[in-house]
Amino acid sequence: xxxxxxxxxxxxxxxxxxxxxxxxxxxxxxxxxxxxxxxxxxxxxxxxxxxxxxxxxxxxxxxxxxxxxxxxxxxxxxxxxxxxxxxxxxxxxxxxxxxxxxxxxxxxxxxxxxxxxxxxxxxxxxxxxxxxxxxxxxxxxxxxxxxxxxxxxxxxxxxxxxxxxxxxxxxxxxxxxxxxxxxxxxxxxxx
Length: 191
Prior knowledge:
Blueprint: H1 3-20, E1 24-25, E2 42-48, E3 51-57, E4 63-72, E5 76-83, E6 88-92, E7 98-101, E8 107-110, E9 116-119, E10 124-127, E11 132-139, E12 143-150, E13 156-163, E14 172-174, E15 186-189
Parallel strand pairs: 1-15, 2-14
Antiparallel strand pairs: 2-3, 3-12, 4-11, 4-13, 5-12, 6-9, 7-8, 10-11, 13-15
């Protein structure tokens, strides 16, 4: 009989600690922080109405930006990848074949060459299930990121943001006031 009250107290303590770990309210994220491509370093997270934005940039050094955003209580929707660099690049334009019509009306073609296309596979920004967006991107001197919206019922957003495999809270800015969180991961209570 004594174990039940201890178990109940333990469960309440866990719920209290989890609820107390939410560090920010969603209204702190309203408006775009001030940052510029190639001039600033780190992550920039904000929202405009229903749409959330996550961007990252460097001051020219190649860095690996990785992590995820996860929704509790609902789904993430409308993922839109933002990437200044093209994912497919034409290296060689190719050449059209020489085409002619023969004396009996037959069409002949000779020569030609297909274009050579290179695809960049180093960046990955995609949904994993309905409530998580994962990303890994190699970035230097440009801006990468993504936008998303929240489905019904989302109560908490968790942002895990790493640069070169480390969480650096001083390299994260949120909202129009460019606030810096004290620690990561960043947990946001959604009203």
